[in-house]
Design a protein that fits this description.
The chain has about 300 residues and is an alpha/beta fold. Helix content is about 50%, strand content about 15%. The protein has a single domain, classed as TIM Barrel. It contains twelve helices and ten strands. The strands form two sheets. It has an eight-stranded parallel beta barrel, surrounded by ten helices. It has a two-stranded antiparallel sheet with strand order 6-7. Strand 1, helix 2 and strand 2 form a beta-alpha-beta unit. Helix 5 runs parallel beside helix 6, helix 7 packs across helix 8 and helix 9 packs parallel to helix 11. The chain binds glyceraldehyde-3-phosphate (G3H), 1,3-dihydroxyacetonephosphate and zinc ion.
């Protein structure tokens, strides 16, 4: 068993009207929580790593732990670079064993994004690695960039971009954003843009970033045990289901894992003031992540038993 790319996963997901969950990983407990959830649901999964996660844990540790997860579970797992900001970081992780990279050129002007993405695609494809790119801008904070107001993806530009770069999947901006505060009023996504892109690029996999649902159960748990995240709001699950039934094949979630982990730890420490064994509290956090991932796979992504 080895790590796989997302090629086959996306083909089946597109045809089956479901999505593959892409969960951000930073340490062993998160990796185990995610893959245990995927295993229990017999679902393929994408483990994605940001540049800050690499700074925190080290690429080698992350690759080895994810390889161990493949051996332990026998699942189809892709290891993906999230929001790669430069050609160099894409090359580095490809050398380290990643099977998929995102080159995020969304902050460059259009022609520069095309040129740089194409360079990453040529390099990656020659090594059997797939590439995700981004067009349009999500509001909120990304790894090293902060955007005040999102810019929706232009469908005609998306069509031109995919044809010229040969990229394997495309992240689009239709109203989602990173973090725990996505909407001040009512949640709204531009499904008309997604539909137009799907018509122009039939069969082509689309990616949705900033797709955490920000489960109110965990927001309330955080706040009850000393947190201060009033007003946190995410993307409603029914909208994510709808996107999954269309061209969206990959749904990115990080905030939901952070919330589940933080809420569980806060509750644990409040209820067990004498406990000092990290295996107890990190174990509880790992279980919470597993439960969250199982729920996502069953009720949001629709990828249960897709293996
Ligand atoms: O899109 C951003 C992800 O949530 C990763 O966040 O750079 O803090 O690891 P991070
Ligand atoms: P969330 O902040 O909604 O979890 O989005 C994560 C993401 O898009 C990672 O690339
Ligand atoms: Zn993202």
């Amino acid at each position: 068993m080895a790590l796989v790319t997302t090629k086959e996963m996306f083909k089946k997901a597109y045809e089956g009207g479901y999505s593959i969950g892409a969960f951000n990983i930073n340490d062993m407990e998160i990796i185990q929580g995610v893959v245990n959830g995927a295993k229990a649901q017999n679902s393929p999964v994408i483990l994605q790593v940001s540049s800050s996660a690499i700074k925190f844990a080290g690429a080698k540790y992350l690759v080895k732990m994810v390889e161990a997860a493949v051996e332990e579970t026998g699942l189809d797992i892709a290891l993906h670079l999230d929001h790669g900001a430069s050609i160099d970081v894409c090359k580095e992780v490809i050398e380290a064993g990643f099977t998929s990279v995102m080159f995020d050129g969304s902050h460059y002007d259009y022609e520069e994004n095309v040129r740089l993405t194409k360079e990453v695609v040529d390099y990656a494809h020659a090594r059997g690695v797939v590439v995700e790119a981004e067009l349009g801008q999500l509001a909120g904070v990304e790894d090293e960039v902060s955007v005040e107001k999102g810019v929706y993806t232009d469908p005609a530009q998306a069509e031109d971009f995919v044809k010229r770069t040969g990229v394997d999947s495309l992240a689009i901006a239709i109203g989602t954003s990173h973090g725990a505060f996505k909407f001040t009023g009512e949640a709204k996504l531009r499904f008309d843009i997604l539909e137009d892109i799907q018509k122009r690029l039939p069969g082509f996999p689309i990616v949705l970033h900033g797709a955490s649902a920000v489960d109110q159960k965990y927001v309330e748990m955080c706040n009850e045990y000393g947190g201060q995240i009033d007003g946190a709001k995410g993307v409603p699950a029914d909208m994510l289901r709808k996107a999954s039934s269309m061209a969206v094949c990959k749904i990115n979630m990080d905030t939901d894992l952070r919330l589940a982990m933080t809420a569980t730890l806060r509750k644990f420490f409040a209820e067990n003031p004498k406990e000092i064994d990290p295996r107890k509290y990190m174990g509880a956090a790992r279980t919470a992540i597993q439960e969250l991932v199982e729920d996502k796979i069953k009720n949001v992504l629709g990828s249960s038993n897709a293996l």
